[in-house]
Amino acid sequence: MGRQHAERVDLAVSTVIFALRPSPDSDLMTLWLPLVRRIREPYEGRWALPGGWLSPEHDLETAARATLGRTTGLTPRYLEQLYAFGTLDRSADDTRVVSIVYWALVHADEAAQAIDSDNVEWFAVDDLPELAFDHRTIVDYAVWRLRTKMEYSRIAHGFLGETFTLAQLRQVHEAVRGCSFDPANFRRQILATGSLVDTGEHLTGTSHRPPRLYRYDTAVQPADHGPLTPSKEQA
Amino acid sequence: MGRQHAERVDLAVSTVIFALRPSPDSDLMTLWLPLVRRIREPYEGRWALPGGWLSPEHDLETAARATLGRTTGLTPRYLEQLYAFGTLDRSADDTRVVSIVYWALVHADEAAQAIDSDNVEWFAVDDLPELAFDHRTIVDYAVWRLRTKMEYSRIAHGFLGETFTLAQLRQVHEAVRGCSFDPANFRRQILATGSLVDTGEHLTGTSHRPPRLYRYDTAVQPADHGPLTPSKEQA
DNA sequence: ACAAAAGTGTTGCTCATACACCCATGA
DNA sequence: TCATGGGTGTATGAGCAACACTTTTGT
């Protein structure tokens, strides 16, 4: 309570980056995210969300994208603002920091391994180390938002390639939501939304009947992206 | 495009304050919000959302509450962060401003009229004047959020007193959602959520059968308030 | 008695779940 | 031909919209 008041408010932008990867023990897919090790006080040595100070000439979303590129070398398949965190006590020292946090989906294949430097490491969401600042709260909230949004939105797209089978799409849902779905019912529900397009092609090389490949209908918006994309007009 | 880059980023907190009031023409309830007239450039004379600069010793939510008190003299019945707006071009001059916007529900009765100074005025949401900055976008988004959240949350509470009849609650929903509901079905749906408590009392003085008075069950959270209230744990 | 809104009952539709069953391919 | 997952059909049940009907007050 005897803390000094900071003289100014600093503005940072951080990003919670999600990717789907096979779990080390089971061969199921699970959620992973990259963290960076802090190289200075406060919380030196602890893991933290990737981010940086907001410079006046950068857009908020641009800053989030830049962070993402720096940390993973990837382009987000989905990016959305999460929340602005700004309580007085969130920066262990006497500075006042407001962090505007974004969350992103990428599909982590080959490229992701590239930037596996000493200071960047991927962690399974349900096996995180101790985090710096209030970043644990932030991650928990981001995971909650991802799970919730997966229920009513089409963001699973962000974890997949251009074309995919219904089984792959289902596995994404199962990994994120943490439960399994009846393949038959999942198929019908997804197709009923009309957001998928049958490419006519099939995936071969499987040891069973070759499944159809689908593509997302680009005419449909994947989700409500916030206030800036005008997709929420009413008639 | 030939704009100078600002030297720093300024942080503001604004609040979209909603109240339910009888419409001037029809006697239905409609959404209203207070705006303040700008007394300096840019956009001098235009109407804008109430707000102010964020000082280092104030919490984001505290700042939003303070704005609300200054403008309306009221305490919010509901308050939630809406979004952080931070595009480069949102401040007509060459300054860079990031606004963290909150939205609030109040019930505007006697007290509200008190602060009806020259610079504060209430407007019907579907009859707004031209607003300063990107505040029109912000208001539209806030209205969308209010409508959406009303569908699955219990925030209607924010517009009502301690006890209320089901008809009053239904009228709030109808005003915000913009359509009418079957009283019979509305009753069942609301009661099925288990969020209402029968006070046992009745409202008298009506020219028909006296309706029961209900109270919200305070044990149930009204809505997911964001990341800071830990109500989104899973078992 | 009558109007008007509170409150209850009932029916039919839609949609999600569960699960039985056929299809097509590799081994 | 068998195993495996892709894909289709269908019965059951929950929940909601629509609307008929009964109840209780003031006038």
UniProtKB/TrEMBL annotation, chains A, B:
This is NUDIX domain-containing protein. PROSITE patterns: NUDIX. Residues 10-147 form the Nudix hydrolase domain. Pfam families: NUDIX (PF00293), WHD_NrtR (PF21906). It comes from the Bacteria. It comes from Luteipulveratus flavus.
